[in-house]
Each structure stands twice: as C-alpha cells, then as structure tokens.
Amino acid sequence: MLLYLAALLAGIFSAHLAQRLCFPYFWRDARYLMKLIRYGARLELYKQTAKVVTVVDRFVERARRTPHKPFVIYDGVTHTYGEIDARSNRVARVFERAVRKGDTVALLMSNEADFISVWFGFSKLGCAVAFLNTNIRSRSLLHCFNCCGARLLVVGKDVLDTLEDILPSLQEDNITVWCMKPQSSLPGVHSLPEKIQQVSDEPLSSDLRSVSCLKTPTLYIFTSGTTGLPKAAVITHLQSLKAAGGFWAYGGTEDDIIYTPLPLYHSAASLVGIGGTIELGATCVLKKKFSASQFWSDCRKHNVTIIQYIGELCRYLCNQPVVENEKDHRVRMGVGNGLRQDVWREFHRRFGEIPMCEIYGSTEGNLCFMNHIGKIGAVGRSNFFYKMLFKYVLVKYDMIRDEPVRDQKGFCIHVATGETGLLLSKICSQSPFFGYAGSKQLTEKKILRDVFVKGDAYFNTGDLMAEDEDNFICFKDRVGDTFRWKGENVATTEVTETLGQVDFIQEVNVYGVHVPGQEGRAGMAAVVLRPECTFDGRKLFDLVMRELPSYARPLFIRLQESMEMTSTFKQQKFSLVQSGFNPSDVSDPLYVLDSTERCFIPLSSCVYDTILTGVRKL
Questions:
Q1: Mind listing the domains of the chain with CATH numbers?
Q2: Which residue has the higher pLDDT, 479 or 426?
Q3: How far is CA 437 from the centre of its chain?
Q4: Locate the AMP-dependent synthetase/ligase domain: which residues (predicted)?
C-alpha cells in the first residue's frame, strides 16, 4: 500500500514538474480563459433572452444601489454615481422632444464630468453618440457629420471657439448647436447649462434606451485611416460591453481608484476607462489633459490604484527629472497599450514593479489580445484554446509592394513561428466586423477576402506582428497609409491633401520616420516642387499650423526632383522610410519644422544632432 502511495505521489510530482517545465503558464492561462468564458456567457445570455443589459443600464443599476459612492473625481470635485445619474437625466429631459430613439447626436468636448453626463443623457433617450476629436478642424470636422448623420451637436465651453469658421456651414445643414457655457457669443448657439437647471432629474422610461440586439450601434468613435479624413467606427453594444471587462479581466475590483488622463473621445478612456469603472463599481479620477509633472502627485492625492496609459505617456514620465518620492504611491496596476520594452523596463526601475497590463485592439477591430502574463514587450498572449475561440493569422507581407504575399493559387501564406507578418482576424459570428458609418467602401477596404479559401473574409489590422514559440505576441510596425505619433494615428493622405494646397508643391508623399528615443514615427513629407517655383518654408509652416492637428503636422520635409513609384503605380514609401532624415545619409535638401522661427528651416547636421540629443524638442 505504501508502495502504491509513493508511486502516486511520485507521479503527481512528476506531472507537476513537467507542467512547470513544459507548460509554465498553464494555470494562469486557465484562470484567464475561465474569466473570458464567464464574461462571454453573459453576452450569450443576452442573445437568448433578447434583453441586452447595456453599459448605461449597468451604470443606472450602480447609481440605484450605491448612489453616494464616488464615480468621477474631476478637477478636485467628486461626482457620485447618483449625481451623474441625476444630471444625465436632466440632459435627457432637455432633449426628449428634440431627438428620437435611433437618432445620432455629436459630442465635441474635452475631458470633464459633463462629458459623461451628456453622453449618458442621450444614451438614455436611445440615441447613438458620436465622439468628435477636439483636435480636428474645419473640413475634417464637417466631414464627421456627413459620416455619422448627426443633426445635433453639443460643444464644450473650452472648444466652442474652434467652431467659428464652420458654424455657418453647420447651420446651413440644419445642425443644431448647443454649448456648455451659460451664454454663447456665437449666433444661433444655444446654452445647455441654463436648460439643465430648468428641468426635472426624474428618470425617463427605461424603454427608451432598451435594445434587443447586441449589434445595435451605441457610439461612433472617429479614427484616422487610409482614406485620409477621419472615419466613424461603429461601436455596438457588443463592443462596448467587451471593452468594459478589461479592468475586471486583469483583477480590478470595486475598491480600485482608476486614473484616466487619456481623452474620452478615444475608446481607451471611454470604453475601457469609464465602461470598466462602471463594470467594477469603482471610482475614476478623470484628468482634463495628461501632465507628466502632475501625474504621480495626482496618484498620491487620490490614492490611485490603477492607471491608464499609452506608451508615449510612460515615456514622458520616464523623461521627468528623478525625485525622491517617485515610488511613493499605491498604484498596483497599469492598463493600456503601446509600451516599448526599453520604456517598460525604465518605468519599472523608476516607479516600482507595477504590473503593466497591455491590451491590443483597434477601435473598429474584431480582435483583442491581453498580456495577462505581464511579459515585457508583449502586447498579448495566445494558446491553443484562445485560437479556437478567436481565429487570427499572421501572413507574409511585401513591404515594397505594400500588400500581402500570395502563392500561385492566389492565397496568403502563413509566416513561421517568430517571423513578422500581417495580423488578420477572421470575420465570423463570434468576431463580427461592423465597419464604418457613411460609406461601404471604407468598410470594404479593411476586409481582406479569399485569404485561404475562396469566399473567406478577414479584418486587416494593418499591424505587423510576430508570435514566438511561447505564444507571446509582439507588435512590430504598422503598414499602409497610417503611422502613430504622440499616441494618435496619422492619416498620410489627409496630410498629403493639406500640403497640396500650397501653390509651389506639385506632388507629396507623406510617411513616418523613426526618431531615436521617441515613441512611434514622426511625420515627414517628400515633395516635388512645381516648375520654376521655390520652397517657401514660412508659407508651408502657416498652412500646417492652421489646417492640421499638432500630431499630424509633418516635422520634416524632403525636396525631390521626382517621386519614386512602385510597379503598381503607388508612391514608394519603403525606401524613404528606411533612409530617414539624417542629412549625412540623404542627398536631397531637408527641412525641419521650427516653432520658434515659425518656419521650416534647413536641416543641417548641427540641427540633426540637437534632435538626437533632445535639445530640440519635437
């Protein structure tokens, strides 16, 4: 008997040892998958009962159960669940006769508590809300209304002046404009705060906001893409509910205090940040704008336990001067994306071993990765079971031709383990792709068809990734006509069209170049001048400052006699990206944007050195 018991114990020990050696992440993978299955089961239940409990429904329930619990802390003022619920009811009361269930309204506001009140107020009326990027201007802003079909706009008091040029066009299109100022100096703009005080905060019927289908649109979030102008990604209740589970999947609880310095018009702050706070029943400290110098003092002041980040934000923090108390905080977790390995390690060295929980996924995409193991440099982790649930592939990509490589039969080719490839996600019932509002062509451009068999369809992420032998997935680069700078996607065709407005430019090719020590890629434009014209750096400076948001302005200009083209008559970007902006390597004249001189000035070797050393800020 003792012999059998000893053999059993030896077998258990051997199995445990084999698991630790061969499958070191087995139990953590299993716990993570169980969480996914539990959360997914709730969504499946909605399908069976035809009664979707939306993010706003969850908020209303939280407000009923814990009305006095702090929900949002903004600018030193605490707003409870009950207070935001009541104020959003007032917003709904103001507009209950002006809009109908199924209408779309637009919101152009910076981070503040009323952003959420207005958002939820319209949601309680059954409206879809379009979040407009506060950086966009003029033509791009008008384009956004054409995309989503909004006929009503609410504007924050700090961005109202940006509408002055296009207000007549909005009014000609019968778009009603409301602002969050007690009084407006612009003609025809209505004041919302006065109306809010005049109505009841009694809740409206829940039937107004009820939906029976997870695929009903609830938001439109604008994202830059290959078309140049902003695209309205359709955000359904399914997507918003999935995003709201991010903090919970990483172990967040109702006792957490979440710090969100990211803009609410992006999905990270609104869907993951606010939605995730509601899912937990936690508290969110909302910052109007990220400040590297105030970040840790804010965390200490409010006893923050979870921070939201993007890679660029962490790099700014690491570049701050060292202070004695920078590890004196209660932050136990960071949730975000785009954290570079070197910044990740420096962040840990400076501010403590905070688990940084990467989430990979685009606003409009149908695939999400989560690095639940916390391996430095990985955007996510996969395994056999995850691949059964979510069908994604990495395929060979031709950077010069700017397209996937196909075999003799016309099908894509899988990359080997560890090899970089284009990430594609299969479009199916478990992973639907809802596309963009306003144009089927925009949606179709993101779909790759006949990938492995005739008739199949995959969402093209536009991201080059690699998956190693341990199933960790690492981001390598972006392809196509977008690149990231300052945490934003830059659409090269929009920049190209803007630069083409000056009279001395004949042809433009916009791309992103790597700057040592900087996250993402800085904008650069290769231009061909019109015959008998000369380059005017001051005129070009004035144009880009007036027409483009700060992150989309090209920092470098390269003058060329002719534009290189691919065999398929597309502008050649690959060789330009590779050659960069070093005047020692590039024989063409180079210029750099100089805010002090208010001009594009010649990029000499001396100026180049000041960029590398950080003396000249980009």
A1: 81-237 (3.40.50.980), 372-478 (2.30.38.10), 482-613 (3.30.300.30)
A2: 426
A3: 18
A4: 60-380
